[in-house]
Write a structure and sequence with these properties.
The complex is a heterodimer. Chain A is mainly alpha-helical. Chain A has one domain: Arp2/3 complex 21 kDa subunit ARPC3. Chain A has eight helices and two strands, in the order H-H-E-E-H-H-H-H-H-H. In chain A, helix 5 runs antiparallel to helix 6. The longest helix of chain A is centred in the last third of the chain and has 47 residues. The radius of gyration of chain A is 18 Å and the shape is globular. The radius of gyration of chain B is 25 Å and the shape is elongated. Helices cover about 70% and strands about 0% of the residues of chain B. Chain B has two domains: about 55 residues, no CATH class; about 60 residues. Chain B is mainly α. Classes of the chains: A mainly alpha, B mainly alpha. At the A-B interface, helix 2, strand 1, strand 2, helix 4 and helix 7 of A face helix 1, strand 1, helix 2, helix 3 and helix 4 of B.
Chain lengths: ~240, ~110
């Protein structure tokens, strides 16, 4: 989903920066407030950030014969919400743009929007809906992370199609023809990876619940009685 | 502690690996990065008229260096995750060994279970 350095016209670079910067600024504000109020969440915040670090560095071979990588933002989005996850995603994207020539500084706004904002928002909404529907918690995490991952890549395709619609700017038909071409690159390649991301995210949640469930209760991710139910303890 | 979820995850990864072995032995797929492909699509759409507006300030000089840096990135993240999960696990164990009361009800339930 990293749009390469320079591969967006100036206008679109600015548009995506304008969209992303307020969210990241709000995320930094929220993160500061949270950390100063509850210092004990810092390790879990680090784990959520580190998970993005690990997963976004793993380029895996997919069914289509090309390689892509998961995003790892689902866990952060469920525990800390999309705004704080946007900050974590931005840190990873800046690191990759500077040291790996992966993504870029001009396209940072667009990449933050897809990986740091849309993905986590989709994950968060699925998590909220799943909790309302009262389905198995690990299955909710799986769905949230997998669809968040997939939404990130669809967003990248959309961003590229906006910037490069076939047959000139504001060409509606041209937009969709470009959109389908970029989707061809990303969408199917990403399906198996999204499934793996969902599964691994659920596993990470299992371990966090095992060792530090009180943080999840404190962050209102889970209720006390649900934690007991998941761990198989008497309520 | 049930290990059901671990088995499911391992099964998914095995299916994924089998898919890779099958695809890579039956096709001549290049396994290039999907992130690099849009450049070709953009060329095709614009007829090669689009020139990138910027170049990366620094590029890893070779594929080996690039994979080194990606490896470092993954390792850094993995250390952080492993450190904290291990830290909390050991802390919980010690606390229950020395009888430090964390959550009385939770502890009692855990005892009943084991």
């Amino acid at each position: 989903m990293h749009i390469m350095e320079g591969f967006l016209p100036v206008f679109w670079c600015l548009v995506w920066f304008a969209v992303s910067i307020p969210v990241v600024v709000f995320g930094v504000y929220k993160m500061n407030k949270l950390v100063s109020k509850k210092r004990e969440i810092l390790p879990i915040l680090a784990v959520a950030g580190a998970f993005i670090f690990v997963l976004s560095s793993l380029k895996m071979p997919s069914v289509t014969g090309s390689c892509s990588h998961p995003t790892g933002t689902g866990v952060g989005a469920i525990i800390f919400g999309p705004a704080i996850t946007a900050v974590l995603g931005t840190i990873v994207l800046i690191f990759q743009a500077l040291f790996l020539a992966h993504g870029g500084l001009t396209t940072l706004g667009a990449n933050v929007f897809s990986m740091g904002i849309v993905g986590p928002v989709v994950s968060y909404l699925i998590y909220k809906a799943g909790m309302k529907a009262k389905i198995n918690f690990y299955f909710i995490v799986f769905l949230a992370a997998a669809f968040g991952d997939w939404a990130t890549y669809i967003t990248t395709s959309t961003e590229l199609a906006f910037a490069f619609p076939a047959g000139g700017i504001l060409n509606f038909v041209g937009f969709f023809s470009s959109f389908s071409k970029f989707l061809e690159v990303f969408a199917i390649t990403q399906i198996p990876l999204a499934i793996i991301e969902g599964a691994v995210s659920a596993l990470l949640f299992k371990y966090v619940i095992e060792v530090k469930s009180d943080i999840l209760v404190e962050m209102n991710v889970l209720t006390e009685s649900l934690v007991r139910k998941i761990r198989g303890l008497a309520t | 502690m049930s290990r059901k979820l671990e088995f499911i995850v391992i099964a998914i990864i095995l299916i994924f690996a089998a898919q890779f072995f099958y695809m890579s032995s039956t096709t001549h797929a290049e396994y290039g990065g999907a992130d690099d492909k849009p450049a070709g699509v953009i060329d095709q759409i614009t007829g090669g008229a689009y020139k990138p507006i910027a170049k990366p300030i620094w590029q890893p000089p070779s594929d080996e260096i690039e994979s080194l840096l990606f490896g470092l990135q993954a390792a850094t993240g993995a250390i952080i995750i492993g450190y904290f999960l291990g830290y909390y696990r050991a802390k919980n164990n010690f606390e229950s060994d020395f009888g430090i009361q964390k959550d009385k009800k939770l502890q009692r339930d855990e005892k009943i279970q084991t």
